[in-house]
Amino acid sequence: MKMSKVVAIGASPKRKEDLRFVTGRGNYVADIKRPGMVFGAFLRSPHAHALLGAIDATAARAMPGVVAIYTGEDLKADNVGGLPVGWGIHGKDGNPMKEPPHPPIAHGKVRHVGDAVAFVVAQSVEQARSALEAIEVQYEVLPAVVGVVEALQAGAPTVHDEIPDNLCCDWELGDAAAVEAAFTAAAHVASIELVNNRLIGNPMEPRAAIGEYDFATGQHTLWTTSQFPHVVRFLMGEFVLHIPQHKLRVVAPDVGGGFGVKQFHYAEEAVVTWAAAKLGLPVKWVCERSEGFISDAHGRDHFTEAELALDESGKFLGLRVRTLANMGGYLSTFGPNIPTNLYAPLLSGVYRMPAIHCSVNVVFTNTVPVDAYRGAGRPEATFVLERLVDVAAIEMGIDKRAIRRRNMIPTEAYPYQTPVIVEYDSGDPLGCLDRAEKLADVEGFEQRRLESARRGRYRGLGLSTYVEACGLAPSRLAGSLGARGGLYESATVRVHPTGAVTVLIGTHNHGQGHETTFAQIVSDRLGVPFEDIDIVCGDTAKVQFGMGTYGSRSLVVGGAALSKAADKVILKGRKIAAHQLEADLGDIVFHAGEFSVAGTDRKKKFTEIAGAAYVPFDYPLETLEPGLEEQSFYDPVNFTYPGGAHFAEVEIDPDTGTVTLERYTAVDDVGTIINPMIVEGQLQGGIAQGVGQALFEHGVYDESSGQLLSGSFMDYCMPRADNFPSIVVAPHSTTCTHTPMGVKGCGECGTIGSPAAVINAVVDALQPLGITHVDMPATPNRIWNIIRNSRAALAAE
Amino acid sequence: MEINLAINKHPISVSVDPATLLVELLREQLSFTGTHVGCDTSQCGACLVHFNGESVKSCTMLAVSADGGSVMTVEGLSVAGRANLHPMQQAFHENHGLQCGFCTPGMLMSAVDLVGRNPDPTETEVRGWLEGNLCRCTGYHNIVKSVIAGAAAMRDAK
């Protein structure tokens, strides 16, 4: 079974990381035990909005096993800072967004159910949890507001006293005058009002953190379920706990899924690190699932009104979008960036859209903070545009595929500058649609619809195209949009004396198969056997720096850094070979794992050069240093723009309102594919999450009390195996023109394309009833009511 | 109280608090950390193990209830080492049936129990059986493929 050969880019070797996971030998944070470890539990606010009075922990402190109890006042007194925001946007008036403090444990006021109020440390988890119940907190409960529309109304409860209108930022992008002119000239205007439902990401591994402090060295260590340990070290060390970077190690070992939920610096990370130093004991906190529902950052939660102007032939003239985006009670690490910079620039989709204007009100409410969740802004943009195009097609009597084809950017028109900042480097939306149409057997749909109708069922076919901007991020552009740091990536290729390779990379692997894909890149480039390559990530003591994994950036940015580092290794190897073979550097060529003098049979194997690098006798040290290890930093020049066309086919049972996903077909342009098996897995998983948003998942708050009603897996409907048919995914790739390997990224494609495809299918199915829009999720209850009400209305006519 | 049970075929005696859940005994006291906890409502199936040969969510069972019985965890499916993988573990590896790996132990244990009851399950039967195991990464597509392939391999191994 041992695979000891070179594995090329484009092959599908089985994953290196699998063995430890299928045998139960993974090493997740919750699995880690430290000597003398004690356990922490958070007391969390049961109220959505309340003034915090006295906290009496006297009885709790006396309970068995209790080691310490801390409140927000203790942290404040110890000069612990607030959680920082990584992205600062500016409003249309040029003023910076409102950025209220975000203390790791609340003081003065609680702003959502789940806001931390106290932290108990005890000898066991059970003792810590028991002590929580003995802490007495005086709350003066205030009226709460959970919805974006309500939060902006006059007289709404004020989440932060210094921000009386709850408005974090009144942001805009685009040319309002050009859009106005487009609407004036329009033959038809299609409009829509929609909700992008709040989602709770729920990676299967709940969050966890362990803090430890070594008095002898002054070293702090944090083990955390993070997608970006270096960023946590920087944000927490610099802004929250004031620990010098060289005295703080952050380790993110095996992490059980992220999807964005684990790409923020969380309060619990800071609190366990701080408490461990206070106590001189390792402190472990493992989130319970129901606790995660009220403390993991949520996703989406938009209210949007949008209009599309068209000429009489169905050509798009302009798009106007007004969105209210929920930020929750505090700004999470990337919160304000998501519904603005990652949303409005994607509103052109894969179409020629001459004029776009988008305004976004970013709003505080008494809910859990909202931040990136797989796709992050781009599924929301796609949903607005692709729903609106379907509405326009229905109203104008144009075929839904024809109206899209009429407006798509032809592949020869790339690079294509949109009116909203971004320039697409490459793409072939028409090619994707053509291929998807065939694979989805669109021709046979009418037959299937009739067959469903014979059984009394409604059948619908939905199409969504999409484009995303990923590979976060070109630092110069990101900086101009408010990023408070560049978003490059780093990789080190360490060649050992035997020729085996260890890669140290700043991205983080939590399911994406990086240990395999990155090893393939090195194997392909250096001719080193696949088995002789290990990928190391997730530990700030091993990897110098990195921005982590999110925004489909690992291969695009990290892989590019790795490719550049491999180039440097080859150059260094050529220098060593030139010395060994007594030839000019310019005459040394590297091919298939061998350095040779061009035009001769004099050559050295990669392993020979690696050995020679470490045990030299006679190097000209002024020009050639021993060793074979190279690091590169890569900063992309542009975003990458994966895109595609997805078809969903659903059947609806009018008696129960149940929507069954019968077929799903996705054709995606992800650029060069390193490992097709892994790419297909990413697409399938992404599609399932998007289908989850469309049909099942909804974070629901009670409007008057601010309680999260969908606060467990009993109430929040996670997609299950029997909710899906086999999913058909197929590539239709164009090569990215600016990344070293032509890659575009694939982690978020599925989640971006699928919600609109599924809802378009649901609406298509219900078209006999005159339905033009259905909000997500299309639950049986919602659909049953729509069918009943529509039938009643039709009967009354 | 003192209980006696077999874990992965090894008999042990262990002292447990009566309130201890089987999953807590396995993970915290005995360090069988391959069995995971993904929820607190018995929904996710990450903690699924075999008790007396049948799948059970170990978060729903008290450790003391296992007294006198036999528990099999994912660590017991094979001895570590690629050559000795259980056919179902091998099938998950071959068919990319896992991404982050967190749900995998529960999926494997559930799948092995399914094949014990139904040696040749259809796709629909696999999907229905796995209703109690949540995965957030794969969209279940390759898990279903893996289970069907693993069932075939288990039939061949007989």
Please sum up the structure shown.
The complex is a heterodimer of chains A (about 800) and B (about 160). Chain A has about 800 residues and is an alpha+beta fold.
Topology (elements, then pairings):
The complex is a heterodimer of chains A (797) and B (158).
Chain A: H1 18-22, E1 38-44, E2 50-56, H2 58-61, E3 66-71, H3 72-77, E4 109-110, E5 116-122, H4 125-132, E6 136-141, H5 148-151, E7 167-174, H6 176-185, E8 188-196, E9 208-214, E10 219-224, H7 229-240, E11 248-251, H8 267-279, E12 283-286, H9 289-293, E13 302-310, E14 316-328, E15 356-364, H10 378-396, H11 400-407, E16 416-417, E17 423-424, H12 429-439, H13 445-454, E18 458-467, H14 475-480, E19 489-495, E20 501-505, H15 514-526, E21 533-536, H16 554-581, E22 588-591, E23 594-597, E24 603-605, H17 606-614, E25 629-634, E26 643-653, E27 658-669, H18 676-695, E28 727-731, H19 749-765, H20 780-796
Parallel strand pairs in A: 1-12, 10-11, 14-15, 20-21, 27-28
Antiparallel strand pairs in A: 1-5, 2-4, 2-6, 3-5, 7-15, 8-13, 9-10, 9-12, 13-14, 16-17, 18-26, 19-20, 19-25, 22-23, 23-24, 26-27
Helix pairs in contact in A: 10-19, 15-16, 16-17, 18-19
Chain B: E1 2-7, E2 10-15, H1 22-29, E3 48-51, E4 54-57, E5 70-72, H2 87-94, H3 104-117, H4 123-129, H5 141-157
Parallel strand pairs in B: 1-5
Antiparallel strand pairs in B: 1-2, 3-4, 3-5
Structure description:
Chain A is α+β, with helices and mostly antiparallel strands and 797 residues long. Chain A folds into three domains: 36-142 and 207-286, Aldehyde Oxidoreductase, domain 3, CATH 3.90.1170.50; 302-472 and 638-796, 2-Layer Sandwich (Aldehyde Oxidoreductase, domain 4), CATH 3.30.365; 488-634, Aldehyde Oxidoreductase, domain 4. Chain A is built from 20 helices and 28 strands. Chain A has a seven-stranded mixed β-sheet, with helices on both faces. Chain A has a five-stranded mixed β-sheet with strand order 7-15-14-13-8, sandwiched between helices. In chain A, strands 18-26-27-28 form a four-stranded mixed β-sheet, with helices on both faces. In chain A, strand 19 and strand 20 form a beta hairpin. In chain A, helix 10 (378-396) packs parallel to helix 19, helix 15 packs parallel to helix 16 and helix 18 packs across helix 19. Chain A starts with 17 loop residues before the first helix and ends with a helix. Chain B is globular. Chain B has two domains: 2-76, Beta-grasp domain (Ubiquitin-like (UB roll)); 82-157, Orthogonal Bundle (DNA polymerase, domain 1). The longest helix of chain B has 17 residues, at 141-157. Chain B is built from five helices and five strands; from the N terminus they run E-E-H-E-E-E-H-H-H-H. The chains are: A alpha+beta (797), B alpha+beta (158). Chains A and B meet through helix 1 and helix 18 of A and helix 2, helix 3, helix 4 and helix 5 of B.
